[in-house]
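Hi! If you just cloned this repository, the fastest way to understand the data is to look at a raw example. We've pasted two of them here, unedited. The first protein comes first, obviously.
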Amino acid sequence: MTPSAPKSRLKHLLKVTREYFTEWAVAGTVIALTGFAPDHWVADLFKHLAIPESLRDGWLRAIDFRLGLVAVGIAIISWDVLRRSGLERQVALAGGGAAPNSAPEIGRTAGDHAVGDAATPALSDKPSIAVMPFENMSGDPEQEYFADGMVEEIITTLSYWRWFPVIARNSTFAYKRKPKNATEIGRELGASYLVEGGVRRIGNRVRITAQLTEVSTGRQLWADRFERDLDSVFSLQEEIAECVVVNIEPEIHQAERQRVQRTRPENLGAWDYSLKALSLLERMNRASHEEARGLLEKSVALDPHSAYAWSMLALCHYHEGILGWKKDRASALKASLQAAEQAVQNDDRDWLGHALRGMGLLWTERDFATALEEQERAVSLNPSAPLARHCLACVFEFSRRPAEAIPHIDALLRLDPHYRFASLAHADVSLCQFLLDQPEAAWSAAVKAVRLQTGNVRARQRLVAALSALGRAEEARAAAAELIRLQPDFGIDYIDTTYPFQAADDRLRFVEALQRAGLLSN
């Protein structure tokens, strides 16, 4: 058994204690135990109570006072158990089904705020996920703690996203070592997707397998395995949980989009419109964003309390502003800020809302300090979200700290090699390298960005600047001509609106590099 095993078991014990020993249960236990107090304690208590001597000498002595205390304590505990059982049954009804012996609970985030609380739609409004107990395949019962801890870490990491309700550990662990198929378990828990897996440890190496199953079809959407050295149990569990969650999140979105495509238009809800919009946003072109904006406006009209829909609308406005797809770029960026603020108002733990609020404050008000605070808040709320780290890098990029931005972009691309907005991320690396007087690295990153998305005008702007800085004048002019073909209205006003440089010399260097290639002459 590793030295971390006792710590992990203590962590599980404390978790169970918090879940089952409520204030009422503790009060009932204290009262019941008081009934076993010695005789002289009870006598002293009577002396201090303002009870007439005639009563104290009469009927009060005729009953066993301590037995009454025990009965009251047990009654309180019993009432608390029944009360909590009733609440769990209500949650089960919200989920559309319940296990035979336990009602599913909605999972909680690290801050103990329910994922399905008033700030987010109810469990039935979105597809829920159940992370089942991982199988201990090591043949060593002492390794059970590691498998259980792995599941808890995945549940916590999934809960950070706040895009899907997560069934609580209490409910899923009721199925431990019980042979049932995914469809049956999902129906009983009210879950749309199941995460299952196993853990095998050999010496100081550990292999973890995981798979994602769609309950309605029994189809396996994703599966992978991870092998690592077991140097630190907790850091390893955290790393693998992030890898699992980052991989399954887009798979669930894709499966949900396919479901929406099969849904009749008149039956679409707010969540469905948001899903269709996300698919359009990923295409990264003007027409798809215009269509996505219309869908998201329908979504917030149907459910004005959806932080997810408002955050997606903020992202849509933001892209339209910085990529020059709206004629009035300033108003698009202002609309992005307003939508992000509405998302945060609806749910203060919505990480994407905080991230886009920070971007809005940076682009519209040049409030660098508050923008950084918002990005750090977003990353703390969801450390596994690549987009949160990307937004944090953007603040560093324009705040005279480009060297601090690059590690965050490198980390998010390692975390998610298929990152939705990878072209924009490489374009940001290019600008950072340009500001660090590394034109060769800036050119290399810009080429990657253009290769990933040929219509990314931000990438082409940085490509022109890098070629100009390298002295490759003819290539820079050719790249500038292609940029103008894609973005005919590119001018100094665009730079001032969408490049919020804190340092005037950073802006000047970038503008001069573009001007040497024949741009910004007017």
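Ok, and the second one:
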Amino acid sequence: MDDARSRSREPDTCRDLDRARQIEIRESLRFFAERPAEIAARLAELDREWDIERALAAAAGVLSLGGLALAAFADRRLLLLPAAVAGILLQHALQGWCPPVPLLRQLGFRTHSEICRERCGLGMLLGNLRPLADPAPAEFVAELVQLDEAVEA
């Protein structure tokens, strides 16, 4: 889901978390600019990181299956749980936001584009996204941070 579309419907607390995440990404890039040997390990971590969409889908699946099992073995009224989950997923699909999003953001889940932004920045530091294959000079790192800040403005 496009971040601009989902961000336009999120409350201010999510916007604050977005700003904090952007700062974290910049700090991460600064950190790894000084430690290029550790970038490969960080990229592997990013490969394993769950984005907010995946976390939302997993939570919805667990709650839906749990509600169905409880309805089958305990009380049929618990079928309301999977119905509520389906409604939340529909709202998320239509509006790009739903009530669990702020909670998942506070738990540390990032958007796909935030993960990609860090991945691309690390790739630039390695020289994978530039014509030259040598490590990124300090001026390039400063340019990268300025570009990121300009995009945020």
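That's it. A detail worth noticing about the second one: The helical segments are 3-7, 12-33, 39-48, 52-73, 80-95, 100-106, 112-126, 138-152.
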